[in-house]
């Protein structure tokens, strides 16, 4: 994540400046475990979410900085306010891998399932954070079975990832989606709804 | 949009630094015009999306900077590659207004419809850009009629907004959603799907 670029444009004769953050494109994966009929999500502490909550409780928090421009927030709120439910996801930083292969690697790394590329179905792609990053996010659906679970998942602790794998039973998905006390990304709610419309009818037939 | 804060944390005995972007919380609104049975979206040029596309075509583009750290991208791609379809949306920057009132103001400003607060239905709230901003986004549904159209909309040109109001007929919504040649946010696709599940059955009964 780099925070520096500023682009200059001329719009209707006026010079305009935009600062924006360069980020990689990303993949995210709606994972459904057919053995136990549950969704597989990841839950992680998100500093940015935590800081938003902190600042809402204490708007002054960013005013005390050390000489490096760094602020040291004190623990004013429990860490749980920064914990977010998300789809398994990762950035696309290896141009030699297909999006599908990148997605499979993320599923193994974060959730511990070894999924063949053929099990992936592309849902669609979107632009995320259009005001800030504008990167492209491709959303996949992957069906997994207990027998594919070869690892515990959890991300790469050496890269600072502290990911918890969470299972949401199919019958709880609707209530989970609309429970605002459980912070989540739109991808989770969209994914569950897409599943209800596109996959659930097929499961019932099986 | 401020790009400076760096937060320092100690995780498992190691000092960690995160830079992140402070942004405001936001509202977005799925608007359906019942007079003409169409969705009302906004279409705008997004520098961040454009820059992503530019960089993909020319990875060197951010290397030439002037003494202010500013780069002047040359027009290597048509501006249309940066145009994105989005839900009407706005930031929450006036703490004296309710989220609903903020949403109504955005609908008038961007799309030209004067909607009573009572016409708004909250869908849910989400965390957006959890890796970068972590701000809370609240999604509403608003039904409008042609008779509520009191203004042309288009945003605030004096603040650099160049917004085009776009109508997507209900019968085209599905194909539009999954046409990847038309860049859009996940909010658009999620909103259309939510409408199909929650509002369309009621419309048919009417």
Structural write-up:
2 copies of one chain form a homodimer. Chain A is of the alpha+beta class. Helix content of chain A is 23%, strand content 30%. Chain A has a single domain, classed as Nucleoside Triphosphate Pyrophosphohydrolase (Alpha-Beta Complex). Chain A has helices at 47-57, 99-111, 173-177, 186-198, 200-205; strands at 6-11, 14-19, 26-33, 38-45, 70-71, 83-86, 88-91, 120-127, 136-144, 163-169. In chain A, a hairpin with a 4-residue loop joins β3 and β4 (38-45). The relative contact order of chain A is 0.20. Chains A and B meet through β1, β2, α1, β5 and β8 of A and β1, β2, α1, β5 and β8 of B. Chains A, B: Belongs to the Nudix hydrolase family. Chains A, B: Its cofactor is Mg(2+). Chains A, B: Its main location: cytoplasm.
Which whole number gives the mean pLDDT of chain A?
A: 84
Output the radius of gyration of chain A: 19 Å
Unreliable sequence segments of chain A: none
CATH superfamily of chain A: Nucleoside Triphosphate Pyrophosphohydrolase
The CATH class name of chain A reads: Alpha Beta
Which percent bin holds the helix content of chain A?
10-25%
Shape by Cα distribution of chain A = globular
Instruction: Give me the number of helical elements of chain A.
Output: 5
Q: Oligomer, anyone?
A: homodimer
Helices and strands of chain A, in order, run as EEEEHEEEHEEEHHH
Major β-sheet of chain A, in short? Answer: 7 strands, mixed
Structural class of chain A: alpha+beta
Separation of termini of chain A?
44 Å
The amount of beta strand of chain A, in percent, is 25-35%
Strand elements of chain A, count: 10
Largest interface: A-B, 67 and 67 residues
